[in-house]
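I'll show a record.
***
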Amino acid sequence: MLIVQLGAILLVLLLGFIFARKEYKNFTMEEKDQVKKELRNPILVFHVLPYIGYFLFFIGFVFDINALKYIAFLLMGIGWIVDGAEIWKADRKRGLILLLSGSITFLIAIFLALTFLFNFSLL
């Protein structure tokens, strides 16, 4: 069963790499330069957090690791908050929705992680 789980994770990583490389090859030289310039921006780390969270949640789900799922939800919440603040400038409604959903996700993940770690009930 462990081999199947590891195979599923490697398959997801491989497919993501293949699709990203295929898209990058279709870019023009100006678009490739723009991507390289954006990758040097340190705020990019916060925009990538939701995707890291999605992947960690997938791994936590496959291996049934609850702590990894909580970490994944925390990363997704932080990423959505940052994305919502960034989108707020262009579209207030979408930015507010992302900001609120990220905040709610972050808070719920913290409360659930505390109940998991310290074994107490909120109710």
Summary: The chain has a mean pLDDT of 86. Residues 42 and 101 are 24 Å apart (CA to CA).
